[in-house]
Amino acid sequence: MESSDALLHANATPKPLKTAVIIPAYRVTRHIEGVIAGIPSWVDAIYVVDDACPDHSGRHVEEHCRDARVVVIRNDTNKGVGGAVMAGYQRAAADGFDILVKMDGDGQMDPGFLPRLIQPILEGEADYTKGNRFYDLRAIGQMPRIRIFGNAVLSFMSKISTGYWDLFDPTNGYTAIHARLIAVLPLDRISRRYFFETDLLFRLGTLRAVVVDVPMPARYGDEQSGLRVSRILIDFLLKHLRNTVKRIFYNYFLRDVSLASFELVAGTCSILFGITAGIYFWASAVDSGQFASAGKVMLSALPLILGVQLLLGFIAFDIAAVPRRPVWRLLR
């Protein structure tokens, strides 16, 4: 295995696993040639997925790109970034490639960080890796404040719904995955649009896959992002709530039952009992014009305190349960 410094070199050759880059293409004809040209020579294949692009990105690549590694895939209808990436995943996995990298076609992702992105998978330390633009505080200054705030909110919601408490920047689309996971992921159930990256994390969590954040700076040019945090925040919130319920049911009641399962049930019931009792005693006191007795106050306060403690115990268990053992070695 080469050193980290060698891997960070654009012409490094991280073998023996074969690597393919998937580029979803939709209205990126101005940038995609430069993106392809910047992909290191050790990458074995490049799949450009024309997602029913009105600018005919696939045809543009075929007419102007002479890189023999490039394969153009066309979706008959627009399936969103998730649908385009999954089409590339399935084709690349079927063609026998081992590590599948997703890179946008708008030039925001630096190909020089490809070795760093795939290194944890090469070394058997991860099943899936993703970029994180928030490690370097100096680089964060390049981002608009609304984007920083939006990403912080989305990251917190993602921690809860996916169970990956050690990850940040969930909407970062610069990712790599071992191809063996493609066969066991329910690709037909994963969100097709902007929620794709986060929903994929949720699905990886149900497989107990190891996900690693890779520090990298953001790179901005004259491209326009289609993601508007103010527009998708409510939609993301509802989907996070759905995934949170699913994850807790899968991990703590369907696949396994542990002390944390008891803490969650007992804590929730205790809090609900305390709140209900408190409201009842308060309403009775208002109706009678007399203060509630100390016993009644304690009867509502103690369950609340106990319930909060039990839920904190559950959260501590959940944070400590982040997957640590890669599963791609166990799959065939």
What would the keywords be for this entry?
single chain; 332 residues; alpha/beta; Spore Coat Polysaccharide Biosynthesis Protein SpsA, Chain A; elongated; disordered N terminus
Short description:
The chain has helices at 4-7, 32-38, 57-64, 80-94, 114-122, 137-140, 145-162, 196-206, 229-254, 259-288, 294-320, and strands at 19-25, 45-50, 70-74, 99-102, 128-132, 175-178, 211-215. It is an alpha/beta fold and 332 residues long.
The whole-number mean of residue pLDDT values reads 88
Sum up the overall morphology in one term: elongated
What is the terminal separation in angstroms?
23 Å
What is the count of structural domains?
A: 2
Structural class: alpha/beta
CATH topology of the largest domain: Spore Coat Polysaccharide Biosynthesis Protein SpsA, Chain A
Give the CATH architecture of the largest domain. Answer: Alpha-Beta Complex
Helix content: 40-55%
Number of strands: 7
Instruction: Enumerate the strands of the largest sheet in spatial order, edge to edge or round the barrel.
Output: 3-2-1-4-6-5-7
Q: Which value, in Å, is the CA radius of gyration?
A: 24 Å
- Largest sheet features: 7 strands, mixed
Strand fraction: 5-15%
Count of helical stretches: 11
Q: Which CATH class of the largest domain?
A: Alpha Beta
Determine the CATH superfamily of the largest domain: Spore Coat Polysaccharide Biosynthesis Protein SpsA, Chain A
Encode the helix/strand succession as letters.
HEHEHEHEHEHHEHEHHH
